[in-house]
What we know:
The protein has helices at 17-30, 48-55, 81-86, 97-102, 107-119, 132-136, 140-155, 181-196, 200-205, 216-223, 240-249, and strands spanning 6-10, 38-42, 61-64, 89-94, 123-128, 164-167, 208-210, 230-233. By secondary structure, the protein is α/β, with parallel strands linked by helices. The longest helix has 16 residues, at 140-155. The mean pLDDT is 95.
Amino acid sequence: MARRPLVVGNWKMNGTRTSSQKLLADILAGLPDGCATDIGVCPPAIFIPEASAAVTGKLIRLGAQNVADQDQGAFTGEISASMLREFGCSLAIVGHSERRAIYGETDALVAARYAKAIAHGVTPILCVGETLEEREANATFAVIDRQLGAVLDLCGVESLQDAVIAYEPVWAIGTGRTASKEQAQEVHAYIRAQIAARNADVAAKVQILYGGSVKPDNAAELFGQPDVDGGLIGGASLDAQSFLAICLAA
């Protein structure tokens, strides 16, 4: 079945108030009428209120780069899914490789964050993927099984009807290396097959994004693969023209 493509920009911890306003304005100005691709942006949390005002009524979705595993309370520094919803966020990245590797987020914590997003009507973008060491040890599929399994065991495969998956080969993020279209397709197909083993209908519909150094010059061939439904874009999303080119490629 045909899945609508989705491209989401992850701005990470970049930009100023002024530069973020300009970036979003340039993206909005460059979007063609009737764009066949769903588009989202995930600015730093402090810029979400202004971004929310800018995208209201526009064909672009707003997202957060993380979401709390709790509803409210004494959890310093966290932002709950209900707070994100109040400011118009319909997307939230969970389990990004930087959160896992730098800040020690476990599979269980990622699954709990995912669950809270689902519970409050925020679409989680669940990130899964292997490091270079894991790929060289032929452990890619085992890593995917572990990371995906933690979420499916907690929330069930049906939760993916309200979620997105992003495969991010950690060895291809910010390193200048990119998975070949064949490598990307192989893992995307594996992810879909693992979901299909639990529910074929959900597997056929879930969007699986590629998140490993997508650029305007490689986007079309990556997105042309049968199980690659768009991209989670890092560095290239900080340049409006590059991001728009990637969106159009999808």
